[in-house]
Design brief:
- By secondary structure, this protein is an alpha+beta fold.
- The chain has seven helices and 16 strands.
- Strand 3 and strand 4 form a beta hairpin.
- The chain is globular.
- Residues 29-281 form the DNA ligase D polymerase domain.
- This is DNA ligase D polymerase domain-containing protein.
Length: 296
């Protein structure tokens, strides 16, 4: 079967096997995913630019096992930007999704979910994001919302403005925008300390226990991403779950709504939302927090 051309950012990307179904319960094809990427790029790319990207690929659709891939394959075209970064025992070359066509090309490669580094390519050890990942142990999303209130209150008490997004999976990400002035290891005590404070204040709701067997039905306030080369799901990324939910930035008042769910927005509904609500993270980099202050 011949491919279908998807135009994005002045480039024409051939999507091979466009009718391949990636989401069998929903009939969503590879072409549908590529077209979604082309359309969401205007909103999403400011959050992607210059961030090393890890691909979560499902070449045969979400009904089969997928895999994570950091290193750029040799066959990727030269126009896709890359960055080579150190890792233990060598280096790894990541994609930089700095243009819409890159997102479309990744979709053609079966990359359903991009994950982004919390630092920019030019300062990999100095993050400009801190993420508190609220990961539930059961399907009671109300508990996630209550823990999110507690995390936000702890941050507010320190005069630290925060941002929130659904993960498109089961929880919330609460994010601080930083100025990349502190090394990541120096930030870890603050992140862990704040999470522990919340867990101690709400012992029936929240935990920092990494072992699932010790969590019970509590929400994990996960700060493990405050480490070198860690990633978080990209804003507006599609998750490899039935319904094709989208990781969606929210206003805080929306996050606490009784009708909110971690998979509320999907590829079928996200553009209706964006037609009514400006990206709540559009100004996330306007006034970054002084990271060195958190490292004191």
């Amino acid at each position: 079967m011949s491919g279908t051309i998807v135009s994005a950012g002045g480039r024409n990307i051939e999507v091979s096997h466009p009718d391949k179904v990636l989401f069998p319960d929903d009939g969503i094809t590879k072409l549908d995913l590529a077209q979604y990427c082309a359309r969401i790029a205007e909103t999403a790319l400011p959050h992607y630019r210059d961030r090393p990207l890890t691909m979560q690929r499902f070449p045969d659709g979400i009904g089969e096992d997928g895999f994570f891939q950091k290193n750029v394959p040799d066959h990727f075209p030269d126009w896709i930007k890359r960055v080579e970064l150190p890792k233990e025992g060598g280096t790894v070359t990541h994609v930089l999704a700095n243009e819409a066509a890159t997102l479309v090309y990744l979709a053609d490669q079966g990359c359903i979910t991009p994950h982004l580094a919390l630092s920019r390519a030019d300062r990999p050890g100095y993050p400009d994001r801190m993420v508190f990942d609220l990961d539930p142990s059961d399907d009671d999303f109300g508990k996630v919302q209550e823990v999110a209130r507690a995390v936000k209150a702890a941050l507010d008490a320190r005069d630290l403005p925060s941002f929130v997004a659904t993960t498109g999976s089961r929880g919330f990400h609460i994010v601080l925008s930083l100025d990349a002035s502190a090394e990541i290891d120096a930030l870890r005590p603050f992140a862990r300390g704040l999470a522990a404070e919340v867990a101690e204040a709400h012992p029936k709701l929240a935990t920092v226990e990494q072992r699932k067997a010790q969590r019970g039905d509590r929400v994990l306030a996960d700060t493990f991403r405050t480490a070198y080369a860690q990633t978080a799901v990209a804003p507006y990324a599609v998750r490899a779950r039935p319904g094709a939910p989208v990781a969606t930035p929210l206003r805080w008042d929306e996050a606490f709504g009784s009708d909110m769910a971690p998979d509320r927005y999907t590829v079928a509904t996200i553009f209706r939302r964006l037609a009514q609500v400006e990206d709540p993270w559009a100004g996330i980099d306007a006034e970054p927090l002084e990271a060195a202050r958190l490292a004191e």
